[in-house]
Amino acid sequence: MYLFVYLLWFIGILLIFQLVMFELQKRKVDKSNDMNWYLSLNKPFNYNRTGYMVFICALCYGFVMGISFSFSWFFYLILFIALGIVADAVVQYLTLAYGKKRCAKQIEEAQYMKDELARLSEAVEVEDHSYVTSSSRYDELDYLRHYIKPTDHVAFITADKGKLAYEFEPKGEATFVLEPYNEVDTLKYPESPTFKITQLTSSGQMPFKDNKLDIVFCRNCTYTKEEVNRVLKNNGYYIVNQNGTANLKEFVQMYMPFKLKKTWDAYTCAKSLEDLGMHIIEKIDDYGTIRFNSVEAIYTYFMEVSPELADINKYQVFYINAMKAIREQHYFDLTTHKFLVVAQKTGAIPQV
Predict the structure, then answer these.
(1) Neighbour count for residue 72 (Cβ, 10 Å)
(2) Which of 97, 111, 171, 231 could bond 208 through an S-S bridge, CB–CB 3.0 to 4.6 Å?
(3) Nearest-5° Cα angle at 264, 263 to 268
(4) Helices (H), 42-126
(5) How deeply is 210 buried, as exposed, middle or buried, from its count of CB atoms within 10 A (0-12, 13-18, 19+)?
(6) Phi, psi of 219 (to 5 degrees)
(7) Comparing C-alpha atoms, which of 196, 159, 200, 166 is closest to residue 181?
(8) What's the order of all strands across the beta sheet hosting 279-292?
(9) How far is CA 172 from CA 129, 151, 168, 200, 245, in A?
(10) Which DSSP symbol is given to 161?
(11) How many other C-beta atoms lie within 10 A of the C-beta of residue 342?
C-alpha cells in the first residue's frame, strides 16, 4: 500500500511538471507557427526512455542512499528504478493524450496541410508565377556597363553555367567565365577567341596571372578577396552582387539559425575590401519582399532560383508554415536582401 501511494504521488508530481512544460512549449510553438510540432503529437504512444530513466533513477538513488553492496540496497535500487520507469511511462502517456485533446484542431489542420503538400510533391508539373517581387534599388548589370570598356579583360564569377557572361553586352576585348559550382554548358555557350571558360586551380586560386584583369564581376558566389585583388590591374574594378544575411530569413532561421550570428551586407563586404587597400566607390543594401499567394508559387520560385529548396519533403515544416500563413492571411512574404559593392584597386598598401 505504501509503495502504491508513493507511486501515485510520484506520477502526480511528474505529470504536473510535464503539463507545465507542455504548455510552455505550445506557447513557443504558436509564436513560431511550427506546425510540425503538432504533427508529432499525432502518433501512437511508444515509450522509449527506459535506458534514460534507469540512469537517472540509479543516479538519484545512489546520491540519496549512498553506495552499499548489501542485498537490501540492490533490492530497493531495482524497486526504485522500476517505480521510476512505470511512473515516467504513465506520465508520458497521459501527456501525449492531453496534447492530442488540447491541440485536436491544430493537429487536424497540420495533417490536412501535410496531405496537401504530399499531393503537390507528387504532381508531374507545378508552375505558378503569380508571386510579386518588390522593386529593386539597383541593377548590377547597369553598373557593369558603366565601367566596362571595349579593350577590357573581364572575368565573370557566377553560378549560372556561363549564361550571363555569354549573353552580356557590350563585351570587352576578352570575357572569362569562372563557374565555381557547376560545369559551363558549352553547347549553349561555346568558347570563342574572345569568350573563354576557366575554373579554379586545384589549390583554389583564380586561373589568371597577377594584374591580368580590368574588371572582376561576381554575382551570388563566394570569393577570396586576396585572389580578386591579385588578378586585378591597378585601377581595375571589382563589382560584387550578393545575397545578404537577411535574405530569405524566414527560411534560413528555421533550418540554419546559427548562420545568422554574423552580418553580411554591403558595409561588412566593403570593409573587408577596404582592408586590402581597395577604394570603395559604391555600396548599396537592398531589402525587399517576395509575396506569394499559393504554395505552388513558392515551389515555382525556388525551382527557378534554387532547386534544392524546392524539395517539399525535405523542407516540409517550412512549406506547411507557409501554407498556414496563406490560409489565414491569403499571402506569405519572404524577405529578400541583396547588396552591391563597387571597389577599385588602387595599388595602395593596406594599413596594418
Answers:
(1) 8
(2) 231
(3) 95
(4) 50-65, 71-102, 104-122
(5) exposed
(6) -130, 115
(7) 159
(8) 132-133, 279-292, 332-344, 232-243, 213-219, 153-157, 174-178, 195-198
(9) 35, 5, 10, 22, 33
(10) T
(11) 23
What is the rounded distance in angstroms from the CA atom of residue 153 to the CA atom of residue 98? 69
Does residue 120 carry a pLDDT above 80?
A: no
State how far the Cα of 287 lies from the Cα of 214, in Å rounded to an integer.
30
The Cβ of residue 150 has, within 10 Å, a number of other Cβ atoms equal to: 8
Among residues 148, 43, 150, 51, the alpha carbon closest in space to that of 103 is found at 43
Cα–Cα dist 133/163, whole Å = 22
Half-sphere exposure of 123 (CA within 13 A, CB side): 16
Could you give the CA distance from residue 320 to residue 111 in angstroms, rounded to a whole number? 10
Q: Is 309 left (phi over 0), alpha (psi -120 to 50) or beta?
A: alpha
Confidence class for position 352, pLDDT limits 50, 70, 90:
very low
Q: pLDDT digits over 193-224, tens only?
A: 899 999 888 888 899 999 999 999 999 888 89
Instruction: Give me the residue label for grid cell 590591374.
Output: 233
Check residues 77 and 212 and name the one with the higher pLDDT.
Answer: 212
Distance CA 88, CA 91 (A): 5
